[in-house]
Amino acid sequence: MSKENPWKKTGSRPIFENPWISLTEFQIINPVGNPGTYSTIHFKNLAVGIIAIDDADNIALIGQYRFPIEQYSWEVPAGGCPVGTDPLESAKRELLEETGLLAENWAEIQRLHLSNSVSDELAIIYLAEGLTQKEAQPEETELLEYKKVPFEEALKLVLNGEITDSISVAAILKVKCLRTLPSLNVEATDR
Questions:
Q1: Number of structural domains, the chain?
Q2: What is the share, in percent, of the chain residues with pLDDT greater than 70?
Q3: pLDDT of 188 over the 70 cut
Q4: 28 touches 8 (CB < 8 A)
Q5: Mean pLDDT score, 111-125
Q6: For residues 145 and 137, what is the distance between their CA atoms, to the nearest angstrom?
Q7: Helices of type H across the chain
Q8: CB contact set of 135 (below 8 Å; sequence gap of 6+)
Q9: Same structural domain for residues 61 and 90?
Q10: Which of 4, 70, 135, 140 is catalytic?
Q11: Rounded to an integer, what distance in angstroms lies between the CA atom of residue 148 and that of residue 132?
């Protein structure tokens, strides 16, 4: 099968834009040659997620009510990184804002597209270790609950479907894989 783009764009029009996203409708010729439309969401920020693990093998989880899904959600600390800025610096800022944690060691462990059928949102997940507790500094729109849970308990929450946030699921499963398959191990880096 060819890896070349089978979609042809014949036109586009902006539908909506705000400081975080834009929605565009494209007029297209689909892979079998029929005309149609395809709408996409462009994210103006990268997503950064942090799996922060302390010396007792606890991870930081943030609880908050998520407006789009109308549910309370437990997640690893995460947030936005303006395009063109350093994702690691954004991850450090988000970890401090949401939990009050500073980390001595950082390693990028995963990149993923969060919903690639409708958006271009890219997430970068970091492992943070060597933690020091300071004061959390949440944004005004963030009503957050912070707790530490044993890593294996967080893994069970993922496997039971109680943690459903995609960045959190990927981060926790990736760390489990890194621990189970040492040949996949990543070195701490300041990328």
A1: 2
A2: 96
A3: no
A4: yes
A5: 96
A6: 12
A7: 87-99, 151-159, 166-180
A8: 100
A9: yes
A10: 140
A11: 13
Backbone angles phi, psi at 46, to 5 degrees: -80, 160
69, amino acid identity: I
Q: What pLDDT score does 189 carry?
A: 45
Which amino acid is it at 113? H
For residues 69 and 161, the answer to whether their CB atoms sit within 8 Å is no
Say if residues 100 and 109 touch (Cβ distance below 8 Å). Answer: no
35 and 78 in a single domain? The answer is no
Nearest C-alpha neighbor of 48 from the set 87, 75, 8? 87
Q: Regarding predicted confidence, which is higher, 71 or 186?
A: 71
CA 106, CA 23: separation in Å to the nearest integer?
34
User: Distance between CA 73 and CA 62 in Å, rounded?
Assistant: 8
Q: Is 140 a catalytic residue?
A: yes
